[in-house]
Amino acid sequence: MSQSIAERVRALREQINYHNYRYYVLDSPEIPDAEYDRLYRELEALEAEHPELVTPDSPTRRVGGKPLEGFAPVAHRVPMLSIRTETDIEATGALNFNARIRRELKLKDDDPPIEYACELKFDGLAINLRYEHGVLVQAATRGDGETGEDVTQNVRTIRCIPLRLNAAKPPAVLEVRGEVFIPRPDFERYNAKQRESGGTPLVNPRNGAAGSIRQLDPAIAAQRPLSFYAYGVGETAGWKLPPTHSRILDALLELGLPVSSERAVVQGPQGLVQFHDDIGRRRDSLPFDIDGVVYKVNSLDLQTRLGFVSREPRWAVAHKFPPEEELTVVQAIEVQVGRTGALTPVARLKPVFVGGVTVSNATLHNQDEIDRLDVREGDSVIVRRAGDVIPEVVAVVKDRRPQPAPVRFEILQRYPACPVCGSHVVRQPGEAAIRCSGGLYCPAQRKQALLHFASRRAMDIEGLGERLVDQLVDLGLVRTPADLYRLGMAKVANLERMAEKSAAKLLAAIEKSKHTTLARFIFALGIRNVGETTAKDLARHFGSLDALLAADEEALMQVPDVGPVVAQSIALFFSEPHNREVVEQLRAAGVKWAEAAPQRRQLGALAGKTFVLTGTLPNMTRDEAKDRIEAAGGKVAGSVSKKTDYVVAGADAGSKLIKAQELGVTILDEDALCRLLEPEAQGRLDF
DNA sequence: TGGCCTCGAGTTCA
DNA sequence: CTCGAGGCCA
């Protein structure tokens, strides 16, 4: 009887270990989570009833023991070496490594290429796992390479690390080396949960991993979403060492240890460069942070021949990418005044090299963001530039805050008046933004309004950029968009860096912009809450400017997607005599468009279909694709949802493509899009 | 009323 | 790209 319970317990452990392996190591679960939970609970129950059957390697025993007083030192039997870093950050750094190896091995130019194992350099914490007869007996940090700290209790809580190896006859001793880290998505999720519950979020995945492993209380470490990838071995006994590094990793994987699938065996230097570039391109979309890649001579024989230089193996090198996160100092917090008068705080940073560029500014968005980060002038901050291009302040390193601490930064206190025009500033109840009340009296807002008017999606006046607008406004040559059409050669030629030729070019661009569309014109006016899409809706609905001007709030609400707020913004804009005047002046200056009958319904083959564009198409710009889809009656949205009908994907498509695949949205390439568009061009002849 | 789904607006650097 | 917030539908 008790025999059969012991058997059941053993069977359950085997099953649970197997499903752990499928889930955490192979990332392809075989059974639903609920089924796994059921097995786990059954084992827990049996162990509770029969404590004599509990073994330390049981999957239920991950979090055991009490908080420690401190960590015991562990002498590594085989030292944990560091890897030398290739100094040349360019892809050519790989060539230097290959050249060094060949020289060292005294190879001639016509000898065959060397085989390398390429893998990722994870941004985490190096750990040594010691398995004796298949059971995890000890986990230690690297420390100084000779002696680390015993962190077994914490490491046992990491779900993807097997407590028992998957082998009938496990080696007497197997030390596995690898990196503990926190995957990005898990990190974000953990932090979101912490913020919700008022807990302290982790500063970044790296510190989070290191900090978790050094928790004295394993119960805390167990809460952290730690993960692990093996990349090598230390001491082994009773194990037939495979002949190459890549085969060692294969063997570890078979024993149930997680090994990243982002690895490759390549021949010669071109292979290294290719791996480096491939990973570099995909770096942002990997679900974890890496510093770079690692190249290792694959053959263990060659590794032995190459040996070591002062504790660094000669047969391996780390080839880093530009850092994605860096520490820098907020030298000052200033504000910028935008088109709508919003005062946007900007951190002026001590320039740092992050993600391949030097960053010296980062937006702080608004007061709420400043409060959330509690960033103050003089603070040390972590700056990140990933996924997107725009740098952001991730967190303040409070330990490094200067003493005495600088005061909390309050926009309203620091800037009771607009720094540009001196008008008072206000924060509307319920709004995050603090705004300058100066309106178009404020030169900053006027400049932004002009830039918006001239922008590509509005009137498309080429060459009218920030520099020029600054001068035109500062010299008093232009106050309203209408003034642009009254500029002559005499005025323009006075500007800095404006010789005859560029002046003529600017005037020509202004002239050209007179031919436009009603939608562009409405968008160009810069009415609050009226962007490109709403402008198009308005143009389509009313057909003519006069019809729009005549519409009251009620009439405006008839337009699709226009509700009370947007209707009020529009009505308010046109109730301002000054604005009506500018509109009339623009028409008088010759700005014109083809007016159409009001259209209440979209026609065309693609009517009612929603598209999302992502990536770079081979023969069309995004704008062209958008125009053509819209011409056929389709809509182009910015993000993928279940309402999306098609996703048009080009080269280097990013997260939107992944989302589309998840939601099962039809994915088109350029050709398929053209096929959808073309019958439309023919079909339209029938109307 | 709540929960999507969009749109608008602001943003960095070379 | 990512917020915040407006609009719409259940």
Main features:
elongated, Helix Hairpins, 26 helices, alpha+beta, single chain, DNA-binding, 4 domains, D-amino Acid Aminotransferase, Chain A, domain 1, four-stranded antiparallel beta sheet, OB fold (Dihydrolipoamide Acetyltransferase, E2P), 687 residues
Helices and strands, with pairings:
Elements: H1 2-25, H2 33-49, E1 73-75, H3 93-104, E2 115-122, E3 125-132, E4 135-141, E5 147-149, H4 152-155, E6 173-181, H5 184-196, H6 205-213, H7 218-223, E7 227-237, H8 245-254, E8 264-267, H9 268-282, E9 290-297, H10 300-306, E10 308-309, E11 312-313, E12 316-320, E13 325-337, E14 343-354, E15 357-363, H11 367-373, E16 380-384, E17 392-396, H12 411-414, E18 425-426, E19 435-436, H13 443-454, H14 466-474, H15 481-484, H16 489-492, H17 500-512, H18 518-524, H19 532-542, H20 545-550, H21 553-556, H22 564-575, H23 577-588, E20 610-614, H24 622-631, E21 635-637, E22 646-649, H25 655-663, E23 666-668, H26 670-683
Parallel strand pairs: 20-21, 20-22, 22-23
Antiparallel strand pairs: 1-5, 2-8, 2-9, 3-4, 3-6, 6-7, 9-12, 10-11, 13-14, 13-16, 14-15, 16-17, 18-19
The structure holds a DNA duplex (14 and 10 nucleotides).
